[in-house]
Structure formats: C-alpha cells, structure tokens
Amino acid sequence: MTVLEARNVSKRFGGIAAVDGMSFAVASGEILGLIGPNGAGKTTMFDLLAGSVAASSGEIRLMGQDVTRAPAHRRLAGGMGRTFQIPRPFPELSLIDNMLLARQDQTGERLWANFTAPRRIAAEERAARDKALALLDLVALRRLADEPARVLSGGQRKLLELARVMMADPKVVLLDEPAAGVNPTLLEVLIDRIREINASGVTFVLIEHNIDMVSRLCHRVLVMASGSLLCEGTPQEVARDPRVIEAYLGGTPA
Ligand SMILES: Nc1ncnc2c1ncn2[C@@H]1O[C@H](COP(=O)(O)OP(=O)(O)O)[C@@H](O)[C@H]1O
Ligand SMILES: [Mg+2]
C-alpha cells in the first residue's frame, strides 16, 4: 500500500526550479532515503510533501487522498509528521512541556469542554503526560524531562524532535538530516529508535548525508540532483552508480 506519493511535482522560486518533475511513491512500512548533493532540492521536496510550501504544479497524495492544496496542519492530522534540519524547541520550556505542545486535537483546547467535561480533560492530560514520558524514555531523555530544552546538546535536540513528532501518532514521518551534529553514541540510539518505531508500523522518509546511516537504515534510496530524480535503488546499488558519484563530485561542495 502507498502512504505518500508525489506525481510530477515541481516548485519554482523565481527562475529556479528547486524541484522539477519529481514522481515517487512511499510504501507503507518502508524506510526510504532521499539523498543528493547540497542544493539538489531535498528540503524543498519535504516542504512540498508536508505542505509548508505550495507546489507550482503536480500532485501530492497522502493515504490515497489528494492533499496538494491542503495546509500543513491538515496533513499533520492526516498522519504526516515532519522534523526539521535544525530543530528549534522552546528553550525555556521543559522537555515535557515541549512534548505536550505537540499534541493534536486534545479536548482541553476547546474552552467549552473545560466546563462540561473536566474529568475527561484531567484524564486526557494524564494520558498525554504518560505518553510524553514514555516517548522521552524511548529516546533516552526521560531523566531530563523537567529541564529546560536549552540544556540539550544538538544531538539530544534531534532525539527530542523525533520524540515530539511521535506525539501526534503519525503514519509517515519525514526526517530532515536526523544524524547531522549527533555524536556516535547518540547516533546509535537514534538508529535503534527509528528501527523500533518503524517495526511498530510507522513509515519513514529521511534526508541524510551520513551514508553509513542510510545504508544501515534504508530499504530503498532516491537520489535527487538539480531538482529531479537521478536514480533509485538499494543503498548498495546507488552507492556504486556512476551517475550518483558524478552528481556528488559535480555538485556544490558541502
Ligand atoms: N525559499 C526559497 N527561495 C528561493 N530559493 C530557494 C528557496 N528554498 C530553496 N531554494 C533554492 O532551491 C534549491 C534547492 O534547495 P534545497 O531544497 O534546500 O536543497 P537541499 O535540501 O537538497 O540542499 C537551491 O538552489 C536553493 O537555493
Ligand atoms: Mg536541505
């Protein structure tokens, strides 16, 4: 089953085609890698999938629905989670509060429900807190739950970002350079957690420059160059494809 699909999607910024006729499908349960030299259009492709940037042309489908014109929050509610290349947690809020802010549609947000269903709200608050703590535990951050997010290292922020996106129970998660700035020990935690969450049925698409991580995690890899799909295959296949080697050598140096 296809969870996410791009059909001939393009995005132009002025004269530049940042994404130029991209078509691909993401199968339920897979971990798909998206690689390519700097400036290839990978982050713009994520922006188009997540709805933070509108496509100039083409179609995006999520769980079989056309979401091309749906705003980001509707895609989030439809099962799409997304992390950012540079995570920006609220620095003065505790980790747990940063997590609780990521909740979707909790009853407490509706003012009227506070008067009519206080007990249900208290129960939901408790459940959300328990879920946030369990997710912080999963990414080895539970002991810091009450600390402000500013104390976290860059790598720990990436882990918090992964835990935060899981609060909304996404079906497909887009990870933008999850390994960047993460030390080797935390990287192992991150890889294990992505595998574990994937085994529970969550689909992943990840942009990553760390080829070791890509080959260990990804079932399949798409290579982008100059806004287009250059080739696809297993991590081993794309690593030895001469077109891929040339795209990296000819591309903007990192
Ligand atoms: N908001 C924007 N306005 C203008 N140009 C942009 C914008 N975002 C990205 N671009 C351009 O689109 C191209 C692809 O960028 P990007 O998607 O960030 O690539 P990648 O993530 O693969 O490094 C680059 O040439 C970049 O300069
Ligand atoms: Mg990028």
Topology at a glance:
Elements: E1 2-13, E2 16-27, E3 31-35, H1 42-50, E4 57-62, E5 65-66, H2 72-77, E6 80-82, H3 95-100, H4 111-116, H5 118-138, H6 154-166, E7 172-176, H7 184-199, E8 203-207, H8 211-217, E9 220-225, E10 228-233, H9 235-239, H10 242-250
Helix pairs in contact: 5-6
Bound molecules: adenosine-5'-diphosphate and magnesium ion (MG).
Protein name: ABC transporter ATP-binding protein
Domain ABC transporter: 4-251
Pfam families: ABC_tran, BCA_ABC_TP_C
- The CATH homologous superfamily of the largest domain is termed P-loop containing nucleotide triphosphate hydrolases
What hetero molecules are bound to the protein chains? adenosine-5'-diphosphate, magnesium ion
How would a textbook summarize the main sheet?
6 strands, mixed
The helix content, as a percent range, equals: 25-40%
Number of strands: 10
CATH architecture of the largest domain: 3-Layer(aba) Sandwich
The number of helical runs is 10
CATH topology of the largest domain: Rossmann fold
